[in-house]
Design a protein that fits this description.
It is built from eleven helices and four strands. By secondary structure, the protein is mostly helical. A hairpin with a 4-residue loop joins strand 3 and strand 4.
């Protein structure tokens, strides 16, 4: 945490120097971000090899760069656990392209408003990283100590704290949505402002469920039950959120030709919900993963799955 916090400060300082001092603009921000991450990564590598750093002190883990770490069972477990986590993190990145293509039907102002809302969404979602790390760490330690009841207790508390924190963030953001949105535009009279305000308020409702979803995913990740959070995120985004946005953007009634009789009849028309499709897409993106992840947590199946990855599990050579 100290290294990451130092990297964040370095990012701010370097970006400010490049943007304002050297006048590099957006390129300066990019260079500052890259350099700060290089510094943090280098510090981690040096600290892990040496066993500590001068200012931060000793590291709890030391890595010998010349040791042999070939362990087929461990590698298989890392792939089984890590691949769904990586795929889950890529869900929104992959979904961004069809979502923006759908929103383009509404016009460039709607696209701009959506991008603004997603940036504000990202800020509101910041606590989730901390809650996810806390849940995975505490639950994982309790499972490693063969205390699944304590692990479940940690997870329940973190889910409650996460949902409450997100609710406070959402309420404050919803009240000041107009003031926040204008920070992202050149003029308060820009046509995308009222659309963005509506998107942000829809996101404020949805982000509360993100607290539940992320909090419930923490114990599942700690137990190695990572396929369910990935599946829930994929289902919510690609199977519900994007189709809802599509329905909102395409509400015309086309006609089709009926083979064999030479006439055309209208297809069954989709409901003309317009931007409500986008509002509901925000909600579907979080409510579906929240319901699935929390349901999986309540089932307790993750405790049984964790047994295969605990230190006392039989070796798989």
């Amino acid at each position: 945490m100290q290294l990451r916090a130092g990297g964040a400060l370095a990012n701010v300082a370097l970006s400010a120097a490049f943007i304002f001092g050297l006048g590099w603009g957006v390129e300066g921000a990019a260079v500052g971000t890259v350099l700060s991450n290089v510094v943090v990564t280098t510090a981690f590598a040096v600290g892990l090899v040496r066993g500590g750093l001068p200012v931060l002190g000793a590291f709890p883990v030391t890595i010998d760069p010349f040791a042999s770490y070939v362990n087929p069972g461990m590698l298989r477990a890392l792939v089984e656990i890590g691949a769904p986590v990586g795929a889950r993190n890529l869900v929104w990145t992959a979904a961004e392209f069809p979502m923006l293509a759908i929103l383009d039907v509404f016009g460039e102002n709607t696209v701009a408003a959506f991008v603004i809302a997603r940036r504000i969404w990202g800020i509101m979602n910041t606590p989730g990283w901390g809650f996810g790390l806390a849940s995975s760490s505490l639950v994982g330690q309790a499972l490693g100590d063969e205390d699944p009841a304590e692990a479940a207790a940690y997870a329940r508390d973190i889910i409650r704290f996460s949902a409450a924190t997100y609710a406070v963030f959402a309420a404050v953001t919803a009240v000041f949505a107009g003031d926040v949105v204008v920070l992202f535009v050149d003029s308060p009279d820009s046509p995308e402002v009222p659309i963005a305000v509506a998107f942000v308020r829809a996101a404020c409702v949805a982000i509360v469920f993100q607290g539940v979803s992320g909090g419930a995913a923490g114990p599942l990740d700690a137990a190695g039950d990572t396929k369910v959070p990935f599946a829930s995120q994929f289902l919510g985004m690609f199977c519900v959120a994007i189709p809802l946005a599509y329905v909102g953007a395409h509400d015309a009634t086309p006609v089709i030709s009926v083979p064999g009789i030479g006439v055309t009849v209208p297809e069954i028309a989709l409901p003309a919900i317009g931007l409500w499709g986008v509002y509901l897409a925000f909600l579907a993106e979080t409510t579906i993963p929240a319901a699935i992840n929390y349901g999986r947590f309540r089932s307790g199946k993750w405790k049984a799955i964790s047994e295969a990855y605990r230190p006392d599990a039989p070796a798989d050579d």
